[in-house]
Amino acid sequence: MSGTKTAIEEGVLPTLTALLVALVAGDLLILSYGQSPSEVWRLMLSGTWGNAYGIGQVLYKATTLVFTGLSVAIGLRAGLFNIGAESQLAAGGFAAGVLGLLLPVSLTPWLAIPVCLLAALLGGAMVGFVPGVLRARFGAHEVIATIMLNFIVLAFLNWAISATGLAVTETLHTPVVLSTAVPRLAAYVPMFHGSAANGTILLALLTVVIVAWLLFRARFGYELRAVGLQPMAAESSGIRVPRVWITAMVLAGGVAGLGGTNFVLGYKNYFEDGFSGGAGFLGIAVALVGRNNPFGVLLAALFFATLSQGGLAIHALVPKQMVEVLEGIVILAVAVSVPEVRRLLRSRPAKAAVTTPVQA
Amino acid sequence: MSLDTPAGHLAVRMSHVQKFFGPVHANRDASLDVAVGEIHAVVGENGAGKSTLLRVLSGMYAPDGGTVEVFGRDVTGWRTANAIAAGVGMVHQHFMLVPTLTVAENVVLGREPMTGLTYDRASAESALGKLSRETGLACVPSRMVSELSVGEAQRVEILKTLYRGAKLLILDEPTAVLSPPEVGELWRVLRTVRDAGATIVLVTHKLDELMDVTDRITVMRQGKTVTGMRTSETTPAAIATAMVGRAVRLDASGMPVGAEGREVELARAVPDAGGPPDQMLISSAHDRIALSVPAAITSTLAPTPAYTDTPRLRLTAVTVAGARSKTAVDTLSLTIAPGEILGLAGVEGNGQTELIEAIAGLRPVTSGTITVDGTDITKYSIGKRLAHGITHIPEDRHARGLVLDYSIADNLILGRQKQFSSSGAINRARTLAFAEDRIKAFDIRPTDPNLPARALSGGNQQKIVVAREMPADFRVLLAAQPTRGVDVGAIEFIHDQLRAARRSGKAILLVSAELHEILALSDRVAVMYRGKIVTEMPRAEASEEVLGPWMTGAQS
Lengths: 360, 556
Description:
Largest sheet of chain B: 6 strands, mixed
Low-confidence stretches of chain A: 1-5, 348-360
CATH class of chain A: Mainly Alpha
Strand content of chain B: 15-25%
Largest interface: A-B, 33 and 49 residues
Helix content of chain B: 25-40%
CATH topology of chain A: ABC transporter involved in vitamin B12 uptake, BtuC
Structural class of chain B: alpha/beta
Oligomer: heterodimer
Number of strands of chain A: 0
Number of domains of chain A: 1
CATH architecture of the largest domain in chain B: 3-Layer(aba) Sandwich
């Protein structure tokens, strides 16, 4: 007989507890530097949400995290732990950058930008497809496959731009492509001047809504979540579990790949080696704190973006690495308190037992 | 409420126990008195609070109110470690054994005999051998637990508890996983253990069993203790009435009889050898006279199945590989006619699971063909089989039957989600309307379609599976252990559904570890042994006495 908990208790409380724990730990850390916690927190807020530039930077950072967070969340909903958002993000950005270079300069942005977005989607999806197939066909664990693929893909992208002559001399980034530039927010709202926030944020919001619809309204999501929760029951009902695994990884990779456009099309207008900078890995934390809910992911992305930008603002008083410690504490606290994480860890052996169904 | 107070010293005295799980009030003022040296059964429907009460006793849960006394000592709120130290051991429904260790290693785990810093295998095995001889619980200390059958594993669980010096054994539904011969063996073991001085408390659903074995019975309903009685002074029918709170008709073996009524052919005047003969005769007479529901009976005759029709399901020389053997199902052939229930009896692990999985499409067929209404479906995918009218009540409802975190409504459309979607999205209004209709038709409680399946009792969870797998248009139903771990009221209901489906011309393959169930429902009975059907007979010729030797391979 398992107790039925209310939605609040199950849904929000563990997250809030985790944040509270991080706040207290942060206080102690700040005190250990001989600073006043209230002063540091005030500085962090004023440096992020306190002025237009700060807001713009938070929005820019949150945009990438929304994509990678959604990517991890999609995987987790299907029962797959996607550690590969980092390389999927990079591959998406690379595909968008290369396609921008290949397109004729005279092409209208109305066509060039969608083509590059599609390229980013496909680039990430390709990287997601590999661990999906390895899992579905050979039972290779997706955690191992995605981690290894991170190294392979990132190294390949480094080679691709340095050895093939794609890179501008002396730097590791591709030439600038202006025809595919997504406009900055500053072009419409002057007060954002100087910040990297750009139109990709609208794409992020749209993606949140689409993914939410896919997961919770569409038949596809009904099947995907059934596979994630109870693969054997899904199999018995005629859902093709391996196919769902592949589709989920392709979708997860594609969404992470789209995130690459925030930097490539929206910020720098070129692909730069290593631009992903850990945003893919932070996506895991975003998905966990956002409880694998697309709207939760949106809030969590804003939270982690605030922490990351806030780290710069408080650097005068305490080292900015403090926010990395805080991130770690939030992740740990969430990981031990969130029911679905514990369930995922528990259900591992059961999932390995799923048989491959008869193919028609 | 007057409880029959046992004579002699009390091993357990639980009074006014309260236990909450969030809003669920699992135990409300529950009591339990167990005398030293008796076998005591706690019975009740699913969700009556039996397991909760025993977990409070064993220290797994702390009660929210009331007192627990064990051997005269107040131990309210103790922990499992205290309980073990005090000689109270729990044998769980799901065994807690390490499959990669030997029997002896599992038994001594946590208290290993040591020579210096190394594990002393020889003395562990000899200590276990001694215990095994003393208690009459046979085991091979050096075998790996992964090689054991379920019954053997349970014996190891009991040995483990006894090795730790348990004087009070608590068993949570010990027979749910056992085949009939293993159940008999368990009762023999428990009597031996009791005669050696131990006290035993167990939870069970099977009324006929506890008549033979137990000394006293405590009945629970909706978290409360309803009554306590001496086994020798009661009848299965009286127990069932106390459990459900209304009259349930039982046949002589303790299975509920459906509204259709097949008492005539089911009534067996000869009682099992184990029970007191006068007792059993009284009980069966009592069943017929006092407990029937006359209004519902219009005809006492079952419709004669049309055996001459072309079979709905036909298996021809089907071979299926299992996890361990290449021929879990060995060139097996069978047919089921429209309107026929074929009961497949057999000790678990003789290929029944693999056979059902092969017909359902979960396991590939090595050779042979499966046809449904003349169409060869051997190569069909699971989804295509479903579309062709083959439905499946899986034996493991928690792993295969339900998505526990999905709502009742979402579970009811599992596998048919395509029919409930338009342009890629699930149509919620249609899903909910369908769910409300099914909840009403199958009496699923609670009735809120948005509740997660996890929140329901076992019987109601199984009703969700049955409701989903028995739509109007199915052709063949594979019913694997359809009433396992389900309370009496739900068994009665599910049996009625199966009978109704038979009347409307469906073909049903029934696999059950319960011989009573097979005998109560089938038109024909087949026995599976080592992957083959070793015998097949009309229901009229089948009985436990006839089938038993076939099931154990004694006859072939």
